[in-house]
Fold this sequence. Notes:
Strand order of the largest sheet: 1-2-3
Order of helices and strands: HEHEEHHHEEHHEEHE
Helix content: 25-40%
Shape: elongated
Strand content: 15-25%
CATH class of the largest domain: Alpha Beta
CATH topology of the largest domain: CBS-domain
Radius of gyration: 24 Å
Number of domains: 2
Structural class: alpha/beta
Low-confidence stretches: 73-79, 212-221
Distance between the termini: 20 Å
Number of strands: 8
CATH architecture of the largest domain: Roll
Number of helices: 8
Amino acid sequence: MRHRTVADLMTHAVISVRTDTTFKDVAAKLAxxxxxxxxxxxxxxxxxxxxSEADLLRREAVQPDPDGHSATAGRPHDGGGGQGETxxxxxxxxxxxxxxxxxxxxxxRTMDRHQVxxxxxxxxxxxxxxxVSRSDLLRIFLRRDAVIRExxxxxxxxxxxxxSPETLHVAVSDGIVTLRGRIEQPALHSTVLRLCQSVDGVVxxxxxxxxxxxxxxxxxx
Length: 221
């Protein structure tokens, strides 16, 4: 089994800015490249933080209203940013980074834990080599059902666990795996479910009762 890594999913050509990049230049880079955020790097190309559309808008939100409307209280922001004229003053820092060899689960947990939408990716020296976003991670769920079924049937069941495809039938529909049949070794039961669930693109794994195995499932192509 091969799990897709951050290196497989990340954007390699990263648009970045320096700490002295002006507000307007940051806004121009976001617009010109149709992106929502850019890493802020130092002279060694190591990420210091990230400046996003939200950081720029936060900067504008603290300005006096030209129509004289009163400011409304907003949700506090813990990541930094706000007032400032340059990327270094506006960025959310420190940068929360990923490594190329991380799997999707590691990257997703890091995003969730830090409540960020993207992670600069750094090599072993801390230099920026890519960026991965939530939408990048979700690409694994675009894998075709037939590909997922083949990986489970041959890589997980046959090669890894030596379970015959004739013993345990696999059906996949919209990423949902249905197993029909009987696992001859009860000790393998939890292992089968865990390995099937770990296959990239699997949304859920369902089991049907053993007596339902008499009716072979539809094989999706």
